[in-house]
Fold each of these.
Amino acid sequence: MKKRISIAQLLLVIWMVVMVLAVVSNVRFAKTAEHPYHEKMLEASSLTKKAFDTIKQYKLDNGMPIVSEDKLKTGLIGEEATAIFTTPGNLHAKRTTCNPNWAAVIIDYFYKANLKSGDQVVFVFSGSFPGLNIAALAAAEVFGLNTAVMASIGASSYGATDPDFTFFDMMCLLNGKNVLKDRLDYVSFGGGSDTGNNFHDEEEIFWNEDLENLRTIEEIKSSIKARIDKEGVNFIYEPDFSTNIDKRIEYLRQLVPDAKFLLNVGGSSVGIGVDAETYIDSGFQDPTTKMTSKLSSFDVNKDNWGLIQYFLTKEIPVASMLNIRGLASDYGLAYDPDVMPAVGDGEIYLIKTGNLTITIIAIVVSVAVAVFYFINKRKLNAEEGQNERNYILC
């Protein structure tokens, strides 16, 4: 004899069918619309491309080589190893960040952080991803934000690794040609202890080549420091990490006392903290959801905190750009493309919205099913209890 399906079981089947149909319908009939800041995204990406082109032209005009690894010929890819390179870098990721449409991603971060024109923000850059740094500054300019910019000289492989044309020098060029208005406010060597203590004498890098006039790292640092002083940019040199962060926080309090957002680009310890990669996710981070076990587990040694952790504890949203493959996938940008993407190319410029009508119907049906289920379940429980008492009395 076949067992009959109970009303409760039937209701659960109906509920599952409704939910599956709702999900499929929402995906099938999702609407695509322009991002609320679509025009600003296009403007920021266009400005980023102009900055990229300016750097490339400067290199060409001054006989500076475009390295063979720079397959898109952007001028933003550096040598694998130089005196100021700090750690190994992923070439595919570096080439991916030479896409001007990353400025649109950063505009989306501003949107998620509910920023308005005139708001104060903090940028923390290393020399590892000069393209992303420039995209951030272009986005801030278009958005009308007041920035406090902290940058370091050191760069991982294929970043801004030329000791004579660092990211700092790129910014001096762009400022001098009035391509970008915002300037760097604070500069440090970066690298080990934020003092460049893992930089290299050139003979360490070029030991097997017959080159003359190889420089020591102290000579290179001195040359870079002289250029920084000439531009009147504040230089930070503090080997004690905790003291370094405290000083930076004080500088920021003076410069942007009402900062509403922090963007970190690259893996500098100043930004993400010491040994903090496992605690800090890439992308936008809402402090209301990020103050969880990840940050709590980092509480054991607050001396290792970088500026990201500090801002999160102050309930200020942050974004970190480090896992480039993941970020490119999230925002529909090409990973290591063979052709330079055009401005406006990428899913980031569009948003998908579900069908609200279908969602409302699914919710109503789900509530109705739940109500009927529990009423029926209570009735069945009562009947089973009565049957059990009758059985005992027999």
Amino acid sequence: MKFYIADAFTETTFGGNPAGVVILEKGQPFPEPAVMVKTAAELRYSETAFLSPLDGSAFEIRYFTPAAEVDLCGHATIASFASLLDAELAQDDRDYTVKTRSGDLIVKLQNGFVMMEMASPVTLGTIREQEKLELLYSIMGIPFEPVLAACGCSQYVKLLPDMVSTGLPDIIMPVKNRETLNTISPDFPALSRLSEEYQVTGVHAFTLDREGFDVTAHCRNFAPLYDIDEEAATGTASGALTWYLFSHGLIPDQKECAFIQGEAMERPSKILTHIRTTDQSARIQVGGNAAIVARGEIFL
């Protein structure tokens, strides 16, 4: 099987978020799930994608952390299509259909840039109770402080953590400023238990405290329940954050967002998103570049 390592959401190696990519021959069955989990654990990246070419311009992708299979992974999808381009199994300036456990999604390739459609966004709940808020922020290693954000002329909205999914559910957790974001130091066993209780992948913390207008928010992501203490770039959570900001009136329809993640890991990533809504639905896309680090054969 062809095997790649690619850094997603960056244009240079050793930045962004690395992922393993295993490309099966057309018609070849996926390995047993236990084998794919062991492969992800052996590679030690937060996710490894296994791709199976289908008829026409379609692929099936399954995503594995070192602990379990997950329904969708943004950065591993970006890495997958960069790898398919390198392997000449996909062509630039074309659209592809990707079959995932979150449904069939569209991926667009343009000049090496990969833009993927996320699953339909949904807000699953809000953490409002003072005791639960204090517990969440305490587990993250910071005190709970109310966060106010401008949503119009002389109008402010109080931001609370929401559970949001665009393929994977996360707690989208606002923090006051970049200094607070940088001091987050979770109690990982407690965060794993809390994630299990809320039935989420983990916590995606963000702040709207930023420099310049070309950055929408700075972010950090933690998912120890899936053996990912911290991740340098998280596509699904970036899609969820886009919906969070839109639903709270902080960004308009047709907005293009730029999220910076991975700074605390010294692997800065830039994740671009776009939201478009109609009366019936909302469509969120997440995209970025990827840099190939290694290619070869893997024996499973």
Amino acid sequence: MRGYLFKRLAQIVITFFLFLSAIFFLVDAQPGDYGNVFYSNPRLTPEQRQQLKANLGLDQPTWVRYTKWMSSFLQGDLGISFSNYPRPVIDVIAERAPRTIVLFMSATVVSFYFGFMAGKLLAWNRGGLVEYASTIGGVSLYTVFTPWFALIMIWVFAFRLGWFPIGKFIEPTAWIGAPTEVNDVFIRLIFTALIASVLLFTLLVSVGRLNTNQRRPATWIGMAVIAAGALIYWLNTGLGVYALDILWHLTLPIITLALISFAGSMLLTRNSMLETLREDYVLAARAKGISEKAIRDRHAARNAMLPVVTSFVFSLAFAIDGGVITETVFSWPGMGRTLLTAANAEDIPMVLGALVFTGTLALTAHLVADILYAYLDPRIRYA
């Protein structure tokens, strides 16, 4: 396994280098440049326009700019964003990438869990009205036009019912006189969620060693203690009201994305589960007298999870692609909206930085998927 990991890491490094080269030349080949934003100003003389172009580094040959950009990238410098001047690209990514990751990871985890559970039950209990209705509903959600569905969700739950804000990241009037910045509160929310997740995972592993009758009470008590600890922390910081404002703005986008992703996870799990139930080891488990619940969860569902896990990991990696649409509709200031704005403004350093972010997630997702395959399916072994 260790040798395989080193081999895969070497492949990832080579692939990443080729990816960086490809996106630079493709983005650089687009017509026009960021200087066009200023060239139309009649007050600028030809000499001033040429000086502006030189300051942006747009008067140099492509291969010179490629060499400089690659050298700067190896030093951790992605350049200065033209549209966010004078902020470095890496600072813009550090500010907005967590917003995209939190939004799409939360929606993907929720949709994966409920989609997997629903698909497992549908495949196990075939032929009923619930299965047909769920399948039709799942196909409808899976094939729905995302911008239209997002606008309908906003119109119903935000505009008509007023349960959620119409868009954006925060309510500016609620932050007047706030003792800290928005990003500080958001980062604290992320760390709170990470700590809670680690504690929850530890709890579930520990509870699994208890007797069957003790697991459910212990799980609920442990979850209540974790939730109470998080609540006490935010009450003591005095920033709870600001954290609630961010979560309030985050809820509707998560629900919208989760509904769309839920359908895909449910249908994929159902189809994979139906294939797994035909395997010989399922018949052998029944012949041994193993309970139906154990056959469903430990034998059939675990192997049916493989394609679902792959879909889950890759959906996290390409979150920025879906973010271009979703974040624009919900006015969510994440990487997807940043990429769209930078592309429209011909902000090449920012576009390259956003694509580097996407490529890094995608290659990491491939490696994680390979490791998870070996963990979930004991038949898979890497030399």
Amino acid sequence: MAKRVLLAAPRGYCAGVDRAVVTVEKALDLYGAPVYVRKQIVHNIHVVSSLEKKGAIFVDETDQVPEGSIVIFSAHGVSPKVHQEASSRNLKTIDATCPLVTKVHQEAKRFAADDMQILLIGHEGHEEVEGTAGEAPDHVKLIDGLDGARNVEIDPKRPVAWLSQTTLSVDETLETVGILKQRFPQLQDPPSDDICYATQNRQVAIKQIAPQADLILVVGSRNSSNSVRLVEVALEYGAKSGHLIDYASEVKDEWFDGVETIGVSSGASVPEILVKDLLAELARRGYEDVETVTASEEHLLFAIPPELRKDLRAAGK
């Protein structure tokens, strides 16, 4: 049996995640511990526990942050209400929202200013959805899945547009928009595609690998929407089986019965060290032949938040 690994590229950290994690690390270095972070800075348990060890304290809401302290907002973005709460507690805020999420917030504000109905495609309860919807709560209706698109009701006399969470399945979002446009021909598109470049690129890579794979292993956490989607997309595109794991130690012997080709990728909030650990585990099991399948090259970088940049400059760092 010719055992091999097809390794997806790109995979792992996107520019928005890298910026958010570096923001927490630089804030700890500049201000000293503790630095408070509202919600998980990115959806990955390894990253969160590593930052906790360095002195970051993760909280669910701003009222858990002592008055006058520093609080960092996660990459997923927050609503204006959260900014107001932080201000009322005299908190120094550093906003690590991914610029691609900020773009969707701006689109929501613009549509709301024109008094449009906004159909927001996304997952109920996801922090990014809560932040975007919070920009225009009276205008937004959440569309969670295809059934949501089939059943939503709008005011036919008012203009309507759609937006989406940045980390969804590209295919399912297009299908959802298709259903909405069939029902509401007047539905307007956002000025540009909302699904983030990194989510799309990782899905394209896994689609190329999936038809050849007996087993797909995606490194990522269960609350990471884009990581969960990678497994779903792999199975849709022909992988015989697929699993989402946080660590190499979670792989199970029974997954490897009759498996020749393994596809490996990782979600956009996963550090490369975890992928290296998985490749080492697979090599131990005889899967030493690793071939990289490159769907695209990524060169995007985002500057750290301006409020932190200013303080670093003042401190000569």
